[in-house]
Amino acid sequence: MKRFIFHLLKYIVFANILLFSTGKVPAQTLNIEESCRYYVDKSGKIDLNPGQGWVFSVTNVRFDDNFSDIQEMTLSIENSGTEVMLTDCVIKLSLLDCNDAVVSSFTTNWNVKIIKVCETVDFNEKVIFENAPLGIYKLAIGLFRNESDPKPTYNLDNAIRTEDGFFVIGTIEIGKQTIVTTPVITITTQPAVTTNVTAGGITGNLSVAANVTQGAKLSYQWYSATTKNNTEGTEISNTTNATFSIPPTLTASGSPYYYFCEVRAMGGASSVRSNIATVNVSAPIPVITITSQPAVTTNVTEGDITDNLSVAANVTQDATLSYQWYSATTNDNTEGTEISDATNATFAIPPTLTASGSPYYYFCEVRATGGASSVRSNVATIKVIGIQTLTAANLFYTTADNNVDLSGHATSSAGANGGAITYLVTDAGTTEAKIEGSVLSFNSMGVATITATTTGNDNYDGATTTFMVTVTNEPVSSIEIPFVQNLKVYPNPFIDELYIEGANGSALRVIDSKGATEHIQRIVNSDEIVRLKRLPANVYFFRFEKERITHTIKVIKN
Question: Do residues 273 and 261 make contact, with C-beta atoms less than 8 angstroms apart?
């Protein structure tokens, strides 16, 4: 369906007031920037598609004297459509009171259907308002399908129309010299210059406050802009209040965003635009959550430490996680020392930890990109259980009926940390040996077997060893005692091989931390090399045996 557009030539509609008094008063002129726009297709249906329909624009209203019953008004109307107008249209001029109710109306004889395509016609007629009391009124134009219609048929598509569809030209006062004024809008509160929000959690508002003279009614329209400039922008649908909710879908990648508000008013007021409001959108700060804490307590065996500690975490905003493990001196994750190269979610417990330094404390700090706050795990406690060995030399006595205090005779590879040592006669033989507390007594010649035992503690396993007590009236071999005193093993710790001095004639048994025999060798020379390259790094016990004398030395292989 073809459509018609009627535009006002040079945007001029003016009213000339004829004089019926003895004197002539200089003209009063009102300038109105807004236009009343009517959009109607040729079938008479309202069509709000911009650029299609009739367009009325009012720029000048002229009054020469007191407003009386008869006024003269001329409208110049152009048909810029493609066909003549077929729809009936009645143009009425009306006086409205302060509530926009019609006080008096005048139906013009202007027939827009006579205007040919691309033709301009001037319509001129004396306007008579009957029964209009003295007072102040709004002068308005309305377009009707029929003269009998109570309200304008064709609604206006702008902000300065009344609810019934009239376009207000200005204000007049009947019975007095008329000075027509237009309302003036003043913005009293500008929207915030800058508002900072975080994507994904936008809840803020922009607001503007304004007042207007002449008791006109204010309206608002918010715009978005691509630059920090309020001369150009795009109307935002359904944002016609003084307060505008910042769209919650804004993203950091599109930041910054610019908005302004255009404040409008009825009565021909010039619209006023607010300052630009800038909205800066930052990306959400990632949040780290530890989903799996390291084990609270882990027990390991000295010399055989292969366990790990681990932590699991996730983070929002697709940030990248990183890890840093710390050692601490107490069960507290507020202070610690960064461990070099411990930057994975899994941390290998150091194999060199010893029972003497147990317990050990570790925790992990989880970090992320994007400004996330780091989160520390709970403290993990490592308890190192040492394997200790007891060593006790054989004893020789030449006189029976002796009391011997065995305190300190058996020694632990863990020293005093290995726990208390007790003694027990496991075979008295013919000596009639017995022990009370740590005191050994015997009454006859012979050989007794004594067992030394420690039950261990939180840091060390228990251990047992036996030694012989010989009671004889024969001289003791001069070789037995120097064997223990002259024995040397070095270097300790060692890598592949080590040297033995003073153990010639003895049998060497190398025992690992689990008690398994890993190497047996007869020591022939006073200076001898023991090669153990095939053995892994661990704690070993070198047990030497010579003529019923046993001596054990703790050795570490790196």
Answer: yes
